[in-house]
Predict the structure.
Amino acid sequence: METPVSTADRGWMELLLDDAPVDELDALRRTLIEESGASDRAAVEREANAALRLRAQLDQRQQRSRELAALNDIAARLTTVRYDRVLLQEVVDQARQLLGVDLAYMGSVYDEEFVIEVTSGALTPNLVGIRLSLDEGLVGLIVRRSAPEWTPDYQSEPAFRHITGADSAARSENMRGLLGVPLRVADRVIGALFACKRQERAFTESEIALLSALAAHAAIAIENVRSLERERDTVARLESVNAELSQRTIELEQILQWDRTLTQVVLLGAGVQRLVQDVAQLSRQPAYFVQDESALPVDLMPHADDVSAAVRELRAGGKDHTERGEVVAQRVAAAGEMLGALLCVGAGQPTTRLLLERAAPAIALSLAEERAAGEATRRARDAFLVDLLTHPAATAQDERRQLRLAGLNPDTTYCVAVAIATGPDTVRTALGTFAFPSGTVAAEHGSRALAVVPAKDSASVQAVFTAGRLDATIGIAEPARGAKALAQAYVEAQQTVDVLDTLGRAGDVSSARGLGIYRILLSHMAREHLDELTEAQLGPLMAEQAKRGVPLLETLSEYLAHGRHHSATAASLGVHVNTLYQRLDAIDRLLGPDWRNPDKALDLQVLMRLRRTAELLGARTR
């Protein structure tokens, strides 16, 4: 029987891979602190904090997955409810449970009024039946903007005009933190769904997206139920149109079947492509999902102008649906962000628009799930790569395992590149657009992005960066193989990009070899030699400057930089020319007059520039 492995014998990454709870991570932290000397405890604490943060992020992703699964289950149940009041109550009950709030309520828009119809978790019956004007209160903002709105404290929120009746009901329920999202069908807002806490509360983007997704399903289900109820009333009143009503009922049942079919695809996790295929099959027309009008499938090129115009119109806002020529387009969005457009091409059918409306939320849910899964995978891969470059394994076996986890081949030679953004774009995302060799791995480490590129020389990697377009300063290390060598290369690449940044060469791409004379700044021994040389050549000047408080070094540097022109130097220093002459006399006395010789002056100028750059680089890396 295998001997159980204790927490102390397992590293941070193994515990995280085994989905260990926070208690085990904390137990390892305490054990390592007890076993470490005083000098190592700070490093242990940093590693422990990083592991705990990653554990929290993984837990957050798992929570997001559970929420999406719960939302899918709710969506499936909503399609089975046939009565308006029952459906409304089901929605608010599920909203309260899904967001973990104290109170949830929902109402509908009738002409120019909003009427609260159902509640869940209410302390009093005062909320039900309240009528609010659409130009007042938080609900007015939601209906007018057709977008989610929230406030951390409803009772003291100054962003909208408070209403006596609504405020009285809010006080009786002790409403504080309040989030509301619209219920939309096509271009209409038919109501709003609210989630409330009885203490001050800020709502996160994920909570807003979750309630918005529930509201999207609820709006469709409510519209279906109310449509069915309206049809029942019509059948009862108008016998003469029974045949027409029967046909419409068949159509509505078909729509409900579409909802069930599409919901089932989402529940199975089949993805966006499968949903689009089902839309094409149900509509009997070619269907497509496009994220950007600038990159269309080949089959859509004959309709490129109509597709581009339709997508631009939807992206401009104000509409969820549009038709251009033979192209029928439906906006796909989540939490107010447009994710793309669902298209059908061909002769217009009466049911095509309804099908697209019902398919759009399902596609939005699938995209949100794919994004969450992709982001979790990316962060895990980034963590493995950063761990490899900052904490290489001690043994050959562990080193090969660490390389494989990071997506690298233990037998391949790589160049490490580090990039600092110089513009607003995200460098990590932009790296994916470069024509790197197969096997390249990119990651994000703090404010910097890094790429580990299979290459036998740094020049080939530099050529890839130079050929592309990236608003970043990039330092590239020489080729390395194995975890320890790659860790040293990572340090070299970081030092190189720091030198470029310190020299003011923002946007440059360079290897350590390409730094010229400034490459000596990457060597600790070279910096010590630079200090010795500075003391030997400029020591008397620095001592006098410290004693008198006169900037003699700056004066000498500016004088040489301005080609020994007295008036230009004085203007640059902001002093009178006589003051400059006095300082130059002091420099003659301290260094001897031979400093004015061209060769000696050039040596001093280069020495001062190297010294200034080394000081800036040292301050930047401390």
